[in-house]
Specification:
By secondary structure, the chain is of the alpha+beta class. Helices cover 52% and strands 7% of the residues. Belongs to the GST superfamily. HSP26 family.
Length: 209
């Protein structure tokens, strides 16, 4: 494994064209303006390098010289510590802990549903779609508290929320025309960020043409 990674002198990210976990890593890379070789892979024809580097043969996978990481949150936190400016996590340990708890809940409550919606089991996908829509709507008031998710500054939590909200049309999840203004303002604020737009693949751009 080290022999493969040592051949790469520039940081490399293996990513899928339409994957929320990959997307949130790409947002972090863009926000921090990190020089990286992004390799967009075919999920049905993955490169041999990936299997050598990552025992799970999954994306995202990040290679930074002799370091190989293959969990989205681990990658994001590593990048935030390795490239501290601009910071995407609070310095205060209590606030940082709250942010990590928010990340955990989003992954557990929302990201797991994305996987279910991609399932061939239609009943399972429909139920996941219903639960996600309900979960997003129940969080509307939270988005009115601060410009970003419970924060005045853009953070790893926003990097994680944004790919889910961007994909709502893909999964046929519509939002009501009324009573969601704080959420719509949040989405506009995040989606209009230059680095968010830069992070999108062609497949992701097609979700909201």
């Amino acid at each position: 494994m080290s022999s493969v990674s040592n051949r790469r002198s520039v940081m490399t990210l293996f990513t899928l064209p339409d994957c929320a976990d990959c997307h949130r890593v790409r947002i972090v890379l863009a926000e921090k303006d990190i020089t990286v070789d992004i390799i967009e892979i075919d999920p049905d024809n993955k490169p041999e390098d990936l299997a050598e580097l990552n025992p799970y043969n999954t994306a995202p996978t990040l290679i930074d010289r002799d370091l190989v990481l293959y969990d989205a949150r681990v990658i994001m936190e590593y990048l935030d510590e390795r490239f501290p400016h601009p910071p995407l996590m609070p310095v205060d340990p209590v606030t940082r802990a709250h942010s990590r708890l928010a990340l955990y809940r989003i992954e557990k409550d929302w990201y797991s549903l994305l996987r279910d919606m991609d399932s061939d089991d239609q009943a399972k996908a429909d139920e996941a779609r219903r639960i996600l829509r309900s979960g997003v709507l129940s969080a509307v008031d939270v988005f009115s508290i601060k410009p970003y998710f419970l924060s005045s500054e853009f953070s790893l939590v926003d990097c994680t929320i944004a790919p889910v909200l961007w994909r709502l049309p893909k999964y046929g999840i519509d939002l009501p025309a009324t009573d969601v203004k704080p959420l719509m303002r949040y989405m506009d604020r995040v989606f209009s960020r230059e680095m968010f737009q830069f992070s999108l693949t062609e497949a992701e751009k097609a979700i909201r043409p």
